[in-house]
Amino acid sequence: MGYHLSPLTGLPSGCSGAFASALKVRLGKTGDLEVQFEGEQLAQAAISQLDRVLDGLETLSGQPRSVADYFAIHEPNPRLVSVFAQRAGIPMDKLAHISKTHGNLGSATCGISLCTALTKAQASRSAAHRPLIFVAAVGPGLLWGGTYIH
Known about the structure:
The protein is an alpha+beta fold. It is built from four helices and six strands.
């Protein structure tokens, strides 16, 4: 089964310092690394940015998210995935649920989610239908990117 990776030009990606105040890293008095973050503020920013990445993928692919077969996304925790899916109008069965079974694996959740989507696509493949997979991730510092596979 062959896949088409979206062209590298025009991919939705970027970085924003708009939420820099919600994430602070500094050396503590004893030389330890201290990380302080506003979880709810970062979660809302990540959800909003993931949705914007999907908007860009819809434009780039010429397909609405409603026809995508699978979504391989960064999954920091099950609650955020559920909120994002509801807000983005994505059925939960089109997501891998990596964070639910394995916890927060950081940026690896997006790659593992993609592997899961490709495995599901392979299992349900038909000659008449090439699956459409939207891939979207948001990382620390609100670095984001996305692509699609078809």
